[in-house]
Amino acid sequence: MQTEFQIETRKAGLYEITRPVCAWVAKSGLAGGLLTLFVRHTSCSLLVQENADPEVQDDLKAFFDRLVPPSDDPAMAYLRHTYEGPDDMPAHIKAAMMPISLSIPVIDGHPVLGTWQGIFLFEHRTEPHRRKVAAHLA
Amino acid sequence: MQTEFQIETRKAGLYEITRPVCAWVAKSGLAGGLLTLFVRHTSCSLLVQENADPEVQDDLKAFFDRLVPPSDDPAMAYLRHTYEGPDDMPAHIKAAMMPISLSIPVIDGHPVLGTWQGIFLFEHRTEPHRRKVAAHLA
Amino acid sequence: MQTEFQIETRKAGLYEITRPVCAWVAKSGLAGGLLTLFVRHTSCSLLVQENADPEVQDDLKAFFDRLVPPSDDPAMAYLRHTYEGPDDMPAHIKAAMMPISLSIPVIDGHPVLGTWQGIFLFEHRTEPHRRKVAAHLA
Q: What is the mean pLDDT of the segment spanning B57-63?
């Protein structure tokens, strides 16, 4: 079974997609299997992260923004791929450091997420984007 | 086929799980397929790393501890999710940077690990934890 | 269906393998499914990254070389696993930070790569290596 989720991002940050993903798995009627998600872009990521305290999401963004500053920051003067904006090459770097595909076993019709685990799209670009996440269930 | 591995961690560091994982794959009787592991937590990771020289594991821990210092380190004063202890938010950050799911083809009843490849749970918290790794084989 | 791709690397950097991978998927005759790639080494990575502007690949390498300098750099004096050369332990660290397995849904006989997405082996060692990537399609 396959589908595609579309996520409209407004700015850089984490967007939780746990609910639509789990709803699709439940509707499939498949009791046991493997769910795979794959993001069809090179400037955003897929994370499984804590969904209890929203400050975790802010802190994740703050850390990676410091680790990979915009390309107009003097520390990043060595970067050459800059014509798509100062947030573009850092977005590619973040997309290399964090997952773009996730595989989660499904038991009794549910992905086996732990108590505090949510599925997030991590948008790395500053402008709004329409992001596509391909899903496979078997 | 699905199961769950439990790993009792004593402190932060790498814990090899290659043996129980490969034993389960062998016992399954499945000659060819795909093994997927998924860790049901947001403060530890799953790595495939060198299992020959234990100094590799120490060095990995040393590097990531320097890249992501505890939240009571002045360099990390911008972090806000700190009430679960100075090792908590850094653990989430490390869990975003390193894999939480792994997929390994199985041939002739064995995951196709290279000569020096072992499967490890990387505990990022300082206190002991019971970690659950879901496994799917098909 | 399973196979193994071999990639001869000349030096550290990104090597695109999109074409042979997609050709194998097409030849398999499987219309829909899931493609999984797994690199059987602990000193290189598998990335899905932009394949339009080669400067993206140079910038990725430049960033990670700065983030994880060679072990003979004074900043890395704490590393202990150094006898295989100054590029060895940094290669293991990079292999922990970037994916070693990728799972990509297949639709109509093609991996659902986005417009600008290519599949790359990222060699982290400075000397030439023969790298093996196991592939599973089902």
A: 98
In chain C, which residues have their Cβ closer than 8 Å to the Cβ of B102?
A: 100-101
Q: Are A35 and A18 in contact (CB under 8 A)?
A: no
Distance CA A128, CA A15 (A): 12
Q: Where are the alpha helices (H) located in C1-129, listed in sequence order?
A: 18-28, 54-67, 88-97
Q: What is the mean pLDDT of chain A?
A: 97
Reduced to 3 states (helix: H, G, I; strand: E, B; else coil), residue C55 is helix
Cα distances from A107 to residues A110, B4, C33, C51, in angstroms, run: 5, 11, 20, 37
Q: Give me the residue label for tokens 């403060």.
A: B43
The complex's ipTM? 0.97
Which of A34, A88, A97, A104 best tests the C interface by mutation, with the highest count of C CBs <10 A? A97
- Convert the pLDDT of each residue in A45-62 to its tens digit: 999 999 999 999 999 999
Rounded to a whole number of angstroms, the distance between the first and last alpha carbons of chain C is 6
Report the pLDDT averaged over residues A114-126.
96
Alpha-helical (H) ranges within B29-137 are: 54-67, 88-97
Indicate yes or no: CB of B63 within 8 angstroms of CB of C101: no
Q: Which amino acid is at A4?
A: E
Q: Give me the residue from B42, B68, B96 closest to A98, CB to CB.
A: B96
Please choose, from the candidates B5, B32, B3, B29, the residue with its C-alpha nearest in 3D space to the C-alpha of residue B105: B32
Structure-token pair, residue A58: 């802010």
Report how far residue A57's alpha carbon sits from residue A129's, in angstroms, rounded to the nearest whole number. Answer: 19
Residues of chain B contacting C135 with CB distance shorter than 8 Å:
105
